Here is the input.
Amino acid sequence: MPGLLEFDGDCLIVLSKSLLAVKPDEGCALLIGDEQKSKQDPTRNIWKVQLIWPCCNVWKEGIFDISEHEKVPERPKSKNATRQNRFAIDPREQIHAQRWSRQRNLKVLGAAHSHPGNEAIPSSIDRAYCFTPGLMVIVNGSGNIRGWSTGNTKNISPIELIILNRE
Here is the structure.
């Protein structure tokens, strides 16, 4: 897993402004770039975010309901679940971003979302719905940005990443 996160150019500004523009709702975006070996420490990889792909938060009640016949871990539920404390990215948007990225020899590294009223750390809901390993970036309502490396459902404890801003 990469241990460093680097944002090109104005990506941090675009990310923060895009995610907080929909406040008090949670904003969301995909992070596009590539992975490289660190020149300073060849044992570490760097995730280089080169483009922010803002997305609409399409969360609605029941969006992740899964057939009771499927064997999946229990997901946390909340009586007050709204777009102000949940987000979902349309799968069609994700596929479009993946195709666009592949055509440019890039890839979708992960997703970003905002916590307008909370800290920039993954909530139990964020961890429960993290289905694949990748990058999770969270922006809080004050604009603080933190990155996390996510595992699969067997390893849901994220690893905090160092954020480098290269302009």
User: Anything to note?
Assistant: The beta strands are 4-8, 28-37, 45-55, 107-115, 134-140, 145-150, 159-166. DSSP finds three helices and seven strands in the chain. The radius of gyration is 16 Å. The first strand starts at residue 4 and ends at 8.
